[in-house]
Amino acid sequence: MAYKTFTKEDYTAILDLINDNDRVLYQDAIQEEYGHDELGGTESLPDVVVLAASTADVSKVMTYAYENNIPVTARGAGTGLVGACVPIEHGILIDISKMDQILELDEDNLTLTVQPGVLLMTIGDYTAEHDLFFPPDPGEKSATIAGNIATNAGGMRAVKYGVTRDFVRELEVVLPTGKVVTFGGKVVKNSSGLDLKDLIIGSEGILGIITKAVLKLLPAPKKVISLLVPFPTLRQAIDTVPEIVRSENVPIAIEFMEQDVILDAEEYLGKKFPDHSADAYLLLRFDGNTDEEVEKAYQPVADLCLKQGAVDVFISDTQEREDSIWKARSAFLEAIKGSTTDMDELDTVVPRSKVNEMVAYFPEVSKEQGIRIKSFGHAGDGNLHAYMLKDDLSEAEFQKRMTKTMELVYEKAHNLGGLVSGEHGIGYAKKRYLKETMDPVNLELMRGIKKTFDPKNILNPNKVFDV
Hints:
By secondary structure, the chain is α+β, with helices and mostly antiparallel strands. Strands 15-12-14-13-17-18-16 form a seven-stranded antiparallel β-sheet, sandwiched between helices. The chain has a five-stranded antiparallel β-sheet with strand order 5-6-10-8-9. The protein has four domains: 8-98, Uridine Diphospho-n-acetylenolpyruvylglucosamine Reductase, domain 2 (2-Layer Sandwich), CATH 3.30.43; 102-219, 2-Layer Sandwich (Uridine Diphospho-n-acetylenolpyruvylglucosamine Reductase, domain 3); 223-333, Alpha-Beta Plaits (2-Layer Sandwich), CATH 3.30.70.2190; 340-440, Alpha-Beta Plaits, CATH 3.30.70. 36% of the residues lie in helices and 21% in strands.
C-alpha cells in the first residue's frame, strides 16, 4: 500500500487540530519507547505522536489521516508482546494513555464506564472500594483496559469467569474514517443484528480505536484462598489438571509453574517463595463469601491432588502468604527476562485435554533445537506461555533457532487442535504463524471485514494478516 509521506505541513495541520504543542511530538521530541512494545524485537518509530485527551482528538486526527492517506497506529501502555502497537509504516501514532478517567459506576446495572487509558490496576483498586470486581485478570496490571480489550486478554481467572470479551457491554469506537460509533449497550442480552462490538474485541486495533468502554462487574467475593501444590514432576502436575476441571469444585485459577521460574522470580523480587523444593507446582485459587464455603470447595481438590501424587498442599490462608505467591506469579515474565540476554515468547492455546502433551513437547523441542525454553501458564484453560532464551547465542543463531522452534511449536499446537495465541494476540510478530495454521477461508473473511471497516488500510497496517 502506497501511503502519503508525512511532511512538515502534515505536522502543522495536526498541531492546528489539537491546538496544544505539548501534546504533539515531532522529530527529536519522539521518545524511543514509541518505536517498540514491552518485548521489543519489532521496532519502527512514528513520524508524529499525538497524546490524545478526548474522543474528539482521536476523531479529528483519524479524519485527517483518512483524507490524506496517512497510516495511524493506536498505543496504550505499550505492554504488548507481539508488536501490535508498533507503527510499522511510521505515520501517526495516537497515544491514548492520558485518556485515563473512570467516568461512571452504575451500581444498578453493575457496570463501570472508563476511558481507554485506565489501567487494570486502577480498575481493580476502584472496584474493590465498592465491593465489586472486574474478573479478567491478566498478569500485567499496568496494561490499559483498551489494550486488554484489543487482545481479548483473559488472565488467570478465566477458568471460572471467562475472558475480557465476556465482560464488555459497550464500546465507543473511532473508525478509520474518523466517524465515532457506539457498539453494544448496557443491556444483558442483544440479538439485534451482527455483534459489531465483538468484532472490535480482539481485533488488535486494525478495525477501530476504542475511546470508551462499559465494563460488566460482579459482586466481589468476600473470601479468597489459594493452594500451592508441589509435585515430583511436571507431568504429574499437568495430568492432575483434567481431574480438577472434572470435579465439582473448579477453582477460579489453575496455574502451573516449574522450579527454575520460581527461582528466577525469587531473585527478581528479592523475596522467598513459600516453597521451592519440588520440580513443579500447581497454583489453585478459590473464592466465595464465607470461610466455610471456600473450604468446602478446596478440600476435595486438595485431597484429589494428594491422591494424584502431590508432595503436599500448602494453604495460603493469610494475606501475607497470598501476596507472596501471587506477586511472584505476576513477576514471572520480568523475572525470566532478567535471567537472559534476550528472549521471545510463545502464547499458544490448546484444548485443556491436550495441555499435558503440549507442555511435554517444550523440553523436547528445546533439546532438539538447542535453545533454552522456560514455560508457565494457565493450565486450567489451555493457554501456555513459553519463552525462548537467547543466553550467549549470537543474534543470527538465536533468530535461526527461535524461528524453527516457533514453527515446530505452532505446528504441534495446530495438530492438537490449538491456535497460535490465547491472549497476547498476533500483532506483527506472529502473522506468519497465523497464516500457516489458519484455514485460508477464515483469513479471507477477515480480510473482507478489514476492507469494510478500513478500505484504505490506514489503521494499524501490517498487523494480524496481510491485506
